[in-house]
Amino acid sequence: MEKKIAFLGLGSMGAPMAARLLAAGYPLTVWNRTAARAEQLAAAGATVAATPAEAVREADVVITMLADPAAVREVVGAFAPALQPGVTLIEASSIGPQGVAEVAAMLPEGVALVDSPVMGSVDRAASGELVLLVGGDSSAVQDVLAVLGTATHCGATGTGSALKVVLIGAVIAGVAVVGEAMALADSFGLPEELVTRAMAQGPLAGVAGRAFARGAYFPVRLAAKDVALATAAADLPLARVVHGRLTAFPEAADEDLGQLVKHLRAGRS
Ligand SMILES: NC(=O)c1ccc[n+]([C@@H]2O[C@H](COP(=O)([O-])OP(=O)(O)OC[C@H]3O[C@@H](n4cnc5c(N)ncnc54)[C@H](OP(=O)(O)O)[C@@H]3O)[C@@H](O)[C@H]2O)c1
Q: Is residue 17 within 6 Å of ligand 1 at its C-beta?
């Protein structure tokens, strides 16, 4: 019997992930705070629920893909009493291990929690090539996760979210470093093409690739949220500086992280 899936949070990442599950043949019910964002999925055959509780009522698997810990607390709080025993909640938002522990405490007896934050942006969400950082026993939902990408099993519940904060914090700091390196290169009058080509040939290749990526859309506001999760968890002086750079350009809040390079090169703050 096909698992019935409820998907809550149809933002830049959630919408293409939900679309993949629908295309894979799972009966899908969706909910989003801004209802208009569910229209495309409804046209493709998804059932649209009016409330989070209505969305999860008949689900075997519930997936949340929301902006931040506050959004997850609000939405899980609204649907938790309606969850049936035996349901698995896959928490895919990036909310850190503390956020996952708060979710776990809200769930009724008999509901399993798997945290599965993702690496990869909207392009990989659409193509099913996300890296899923899985915490907890995901054996009951492996088929569902496989539609979204490749799972890396990290350990107990919360470990996927811990690794996500570690990895994304370092990637974001790396993009900021590329931005400053480009600003320095500009001050020397070095041609951009020369500098980026040389970066691609050495140890900076990975983060430079992300900084200049096309097809990714990870807004600076969410990057600042992720770095704040890191600095709340440990004493990280470098990350605190990076957070300051991410929030120094309010006009960049909804731009992709890669645009930070442009702002750092322009030198305004
Ligand atoms: N974008 C990326 O490249 C990327 C990559 C990996 C991981 N992530 C992580 O994945 C998560 C989702 O990212 P995204 O890019 O899809 O974000 P997004 O486009 O900003 O979407 C955020 C979603 O959360 C909902 N939301 C926000 N506050 C809410 C609240 N108080 N109550 C109910 N719903 C609320 C939004 O609803 P509305 O539509 O009503 O605003 C929307 O559905 C984040 O944790 C992010 O860090 C993002």
A: no
Q: What confidence score (pLDDT) does residue 1 get? A: 52
> Which parts of the chain sit beneath pLDDT 70?
1, 268-269
Going from the Cα of 67 to the center of ligand 1, the distance in angstroms, rounded, reads: 3
Per-residue pLDDT reduced to its tens digit, 174-190: 999 999 999 999 999 99
Q: For 100-137, b where at least 16 C-beta lie within 10 A, e where not — what string?
A: bebbbebeeeebbbbbbbbbbbbebbbebebbbbbbbe
List the CATH code of the domain at 5-157: 3.40.50.720
Mutate-to-test residue for ligand 1 from 13, 122, 164, 172, highest number of ligand atoms within 8 A of CB: 13
Ligand 1 atom closest to Cα of residue 222: 47
Residue 103 Cα, ligand 1 centroid: separation in angstroms? Answer: 17
Domain definitions of the chain by residue range: 5-157, 164-266
Please tell me the distance between residue 181's alpha carbon and the centre of ligand 1 in angstroms: 30
Catalytic residue list contains 4? no
* Dist CA 146 CA 151 (whole Å): 7
What's the confidence (pLDDT) of residue 267? Answer: 84
* pTM passes above 0.90: yes
> Would you say domain 164-266 falls under CATH 1.10.1040.10?
yes
